[in-house]
Task: inverse folding
C-alpha cells in the first residue's frame, strides 16, 4: 500500500506544481486553492508512505515523479522547449528512480 500512497503523492506533486504556475504568483484564487490542497494531500500521502518505506527511497521517488511529471506537463500543456539535453536529463532521473526502487528492501 505504501507504494500506492507514494505514487499518488507524486502525481499530486505534479498537480500542485502545475496549478502553482497557473496561479501566477498566487494572484488567482482557484489555482492557488488547488495548489495548497494538492500540496497538503501530497505531503500527507508521502508521510503515510514513509511509515514503511525508507526516507531516502520515498523522498527520492516522490521528487522524481514530480520532476519528470512537471517536465512532461510543461511540454504538453505549456509549450515548453523539448531538447535532447532535457530529455536526457529526464531519462537520467527515471534511471535513478528505478535504481532507487530496486535497491530498497
Result:
Amino acid at each position: 500500500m505504501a507504494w500506492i500512497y507514494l505514487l499518488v503523492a507524486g502525481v499530486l506533486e505534479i498537480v500542485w506544481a502545475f496549478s502553482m504556475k497557473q496561479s501566477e504568483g498566487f494572484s488567482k484564487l482557484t489555482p492557488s486553492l488547488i495548489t495548497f490542497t494538492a500540496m497538503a494531500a501530497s505531503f500527507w500521502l508521502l508521510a503515510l508512505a514513509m511509515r514503511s518505506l525508507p526516507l531516502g527511497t520515498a523522498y527520492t521517488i516522490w521528487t522524481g515523479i514530480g520532476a519528470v511529471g512537471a517536465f512532461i506537463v510543461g511540454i504538453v500543456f505549456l509549450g515548453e522547449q523539448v531538447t535532447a539535453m532535457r530529455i536526457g536529463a529526464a531519462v537520467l532521473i527515471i534511471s535513478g528512480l528505478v535504481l532507487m526502487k530496486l535497491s530498497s528492501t
Q: What stands out?
A: Residues 2 and 11 are 14 Å apart (CA to CA). The helical segments are 2-22, 29-49, 55-78, 84-103. The mean pLDDT is 95. Residues 55-78 form the longest helix (24 residues).
